User: What shape does this take?
Amino acid sequence: MVLISLLSFGVFLGYIGRTSAGICRPSLIEWLITSFLLFAGSIIITGYCLSALDLTGNTWAWAIAVFIPPTILRVVFSKIAPQTTAFSPLKMVVSRWHAAQRWYVSGTIYLRFLFGIMILSVAIIGITNLLLVLFTVPNEWDSMTGHLNRVIQYIQRGTMAHFGGTNWNIDTYPKSVCTIQIYSYLITGKFENAFKLIHHLSYWITLVAVFGIAQRITKNRLNASFFCALAFALFLDFLMQAVTTETDIVLAAYLSCLLYFLFTYRVTYENRYLYLAALSFGVVYGHKVTFTLLLPSVFVVMIYTVFLQKGRGQKKENVTLNINWPAIFKLGIAIVVCFCLWTLPTGYVKNIQVFGHPIGPPTSLKHQSIERATSNGGYRNLFEQGSRNVVRYAYDFVNLDGLRNVKIGQDINRGMRIPLVWLEDKLRMRLDETTEFSIVPFSFERRFEFFNGNPYWGIFGFALVFPLLFLALFGILRSPAHWFLAVALLLHFAALSYSAPYDPWKGRYFQETGVFGVLFLTLLFTHKYSLEKSGYSVALKTYVGVVTVLACISALLAVFLNFRCLPFDALGRKSAFKMERIPMMTFARPDITQAYLKFDELVPDSATVALGTINDDFEYPLYGKHLTRRLIPIRPFEQPLRPIPPGTDYLMYAKSDTIDLFKPLPTDIRLGTDTTMKGMIVKGEDYYLRKLK
Assistant: This one.
């Protein structure tokens, strides 16, 4: 049965590739990006349909139904944007491989050194991350409480309908990524680590898209394009999520696809790219509501790529005030259609029905939105606190993340930041003293868990990207494309700062900002002091070389000393490959590990368990090694306690100090928690287990 489902998966991938070849132009980059978008978009819309038919957990329904959406898309594109040029993706792969070899050999000694260390670093990181994806279980906080927890619930229930989970994320987060995780899990014979497939794939597709965008901006300069793609592969916040089930890396992939199609339209003026951009828009907005914060940035890029026509037949790229109304109309209509198909069904409408808001309940909005600032001083206070957040995040960017996982790197980092700390003190900005618009108070010395698990861009960011950004913004390096990208990046930076309280975990949100930011590295190859010129700009070459070497070392240390998923024994912990399932999954909550181990020992894999746990409790590990236990939440977020359903075998509950809903019986087994551990982000509850029959 597993072999048949895997065969179906292989046939589906082949069908997606063939369909993509019938839609896109003869380009390997474009074929890969289009295939990824069709893969994700087809599974997402299939998932919505199967959920309505109560077939979410049916492997064979998935195996057959996923072929329908790409077939329809192929027919639609043949009508609205017919492709007349046939090509073989396999032959193109071989051709591009030989071209890449010729490109590397033809470079100067300096460029071969620069690209050599980057390629070697990315190869080591890529192999290591692939092994971690295949052979280690998921263990991210949000996945243990919400993301993966609800995926198993949907499979067991046979539908993705709202059911009222313990954690508010379960019901409020858009469900599009769940469809891909469910399909990946079922079609691979219920291989748990297949939940990471879309996230790991997103890492590589984003690099392909960044390469393609750089090609469009620089008019096919390979050095600039390869440098951008390889550099982004080393951006720490981005590569860290390649082994997780966090959602931000997938958002970055969808965004990069959208930007690629927009920039390609500017080069070709072919309508197919407007429609593919609209498809990307619908998919990305259906993925996560934080795409709303990217709307101003995407709109700015649309102004440059679609709304304003460049002067045709001219050698220089000029932006004129000739508004491209036909393209605007086509893009607008296509976005509305794709929004209805890929965005609305993902859960926003249901959130409005249940909570009165497309995002979620009032509690979550007040905790993570502008209301925390506007409720105390109105929009004037929001401007003040948001501006303070701008400076906080700017300070967080100026860190040697990755390197400071070791003591010598931490010491160098502290010394480097002394002038910044002094400046903040003299300016009396009170970044660490004012806490009213912070989830966790700002600190110049972030906790190890924060900078180790959620770093920012590393040295590439503050040493190269931001200097180039401001040089382009103020016209010192003249490039219309980069001026619009600078505005787009700063708008997203501001949106993250003003839209929600300061959060030390925010490094992951700046992945999308990084998609805009990394494109500024093309300026190193397109202006007077280019790195391509032999014997020219020695100081710049030396500076870029040092930054690149440090970036490679930082990236390798970030992966090898990733506290959450260590590939080797380090930092006083065993390798993730050696750790048992429960300790690995509860690494962020070690005080509950023994209680969960005891639960796993006492409760059979086939049992039905009522859960009286609370919002921050890890529920995913309780499904068991084979994910076969049936868990029924009876204490849904901000709802009254539900009765224990008939036929339930066990009750597990958390004895809260403030809400004592369950009085322990003499026969209850106290699973407990370790109260001696200090410095917990969230402390574990006192857990009990009751056998009901």
